[in-house]
Write a structure and sequence with these properties.
Layout (H helix, E strand, L loop, with lengths): L8 E3 L32 E2 L6 E9 L2 E8 L4 H12 L7 E3 L23 E5 L31 H9 L1 H13 L13 E5 L8 H6 L4 H4 L4 H8 L3 E6 L4 H10 L10 E2 L17 E6 L5 E7 L2 E7 L2 H7 L8 E5 L12 E3 L9 H4 L3 H12 L13 H8 L3
Length: 398
């Protein structure tokens, strides 16, 4: 049996798979992958029957394509797959002949469409341009959806449903396989892991991307002091919801890359070169951007709700020394903890950096006290990070 990823998107006129990443057995304990025989156009599944795949056929601009989709996928994933093949964004896609009537909403599962193997349909739409957009126009600029948050720490049933969803498990595997990391400075033995968000967590994104304020004035107060304080106990991973080109720019402008401060950032992925600072004492390990995130589906007040998520399992699969036992994830959005609510620590969003209130912000001072306080705890799973501010307040300033 082949060990290739079952999600294979290709044009009939091209033998190269557009998305065909190698599959590995990940830390979630899953077994063999589902395999699609592209030539047979049959519904297939893995040995357990937990994942069923359907081959569809469509034409666009007079050219035939084949598409393999899992029944556990959503309509959202179908549209994303079509975009991968044709570069037509979902809002411009017109799908004819796939289902009777109007295509169901994005959260609908493919299984509910009752599709048969070999189903043919037509796609109409105009591809998007490949030009680089101004940062204020970026699709994933967090301020666009920053007020639409959801907290899973008080709803273990919903959190468990997220973690056990077959689609989400597969998305973690796919993201793990696609992520390429080069580590320049070795991870240190015995250190815990801090996964740190950027936008509105350690900086005010809006004035930075618009140029309204100098970069140094966009940073949250005590940022560099915070990193220096926790470094003896934690390796640090930066994970931002924006795209890599702007993430790299932010880190440089903030003085976290290419500066002569007394710490260094070590990172690498398949989207950029590597920047290093050689005269420092602090290491920050890989930087991840929005390409390592994927979309999940839930409800808020009986209304369908879609959002991206940061799955820590992707990091743990690459670095087995880290796990729920020794990882903490700091972010201003609780929804990013959806697959790992126990490891999440929500920090107040940092905005309006030019105001006196923002300049007097001491959130990172409090966070440093808390993280130093728990640094010697053997197993973080025994902690409730939701109470971190009360603990930091009781500790008082050092």
């Amino acid at each position: 049996m082949s060990d290739t990823n079952p999600l294979s998107l290709k044009s009939d006129g091209d033998s190269d798979s557009i998305l065909n990443a190698p599959a590995t057995t990940s830390g979630d304990g899953s077994g063999s992958e589902a395999i699609i025989d592209v030539a047979s156009a049959e519904v297939t599944s893995d040995g357990s029957g937990s994942e069923r795949w359907i081959q569809l056929m469509f034409t666009w601009a007079g050219k035939p394509f084949t598409l393999d989709i899992a029944e556990s996928d959503r309509v959202f994933d179908l549209k994303a797959a079509l975009q991968s093949l044709t570069d037509i964004p979902p809002e411009r896609q017109k799908i004819l002949g796939l289902v009777k009537g109007k295509l169901p909403p994005d959260q609908e599962r493919v299984a509910d469409l009752k599709l048969v193997a070999g189903k043919k349909f037509t796609l109409i739409g105009t591809p998007q341009g490949n030009e680089i957009k101004d940062p204020s126009q970026l699709e994933f600029l967090p301020d666009v959806v920053n007020d639409l948050d959801v907290d899973f720490s008080d709803n273990p049933t919903a959190a468990a449903a997220y973690k056990n969803d077959q689609r989400n498990i597969r998305k973690v595997r796919e993201a793990t396989n696609k992520l390429k990391i080069d580590i320049i400075y070795p991870l240190r033995e015995g250190k815990k892991l801090l996964v740190l968000d950027i936008d509105y967590t350690i900086l005010d994104t809006k004035p930075l991307t618009s140029g309204a304020l100098p970069p140094a004035e966009c940073a949250r107060p005590r940022l560099h002091e915070f990193l220096e304080a926790i470094y003896p106990y934690y390796d640090i991973c930066i994970w931002s919801q924006t795209s890599w080109i702007w993430l790299e720019t932010k880190l440089v402008e903030l003085g976290m890359l290419g500066s002569d401060r007394n710490y260094k950032i070590s990172f690498g992925d398949n989207l950029t070169g590597i920047l290093t600072v050689n005269t420092c004492i602090l290491m920050v390990c890989p930087v991840l951007d929005k390409t390592c995130m994927f979309t999940v589906f839930t409800e808020r007040g009986n209304t369908p709700y879609t959002h991206s998520v940061k799955a820590l399992q992707i990091i743990w699969n690459h670095f087995p020394r880290f796990s729920a036992k020794n990882t903490i994830h700091v972010d201003d959005l609780s929804r990013n903890f959806a697959l790992n609510p126990q490891e999440g620590l929500k920090i107040n969003a940092f905005k309006n950096a030019h105001t006196a209130e923002a300049m007097n912000d001491r959130e990172l001072e409090k966070l440093a006290r808390y993280m130093l306080h728990i640094a010697l705890v053997d197993d973080f799973r025994s902690l409730q990070h939701k109470n971190w501010k009360n603990i930091a307040r009781a500790l008082g300033p050092h």
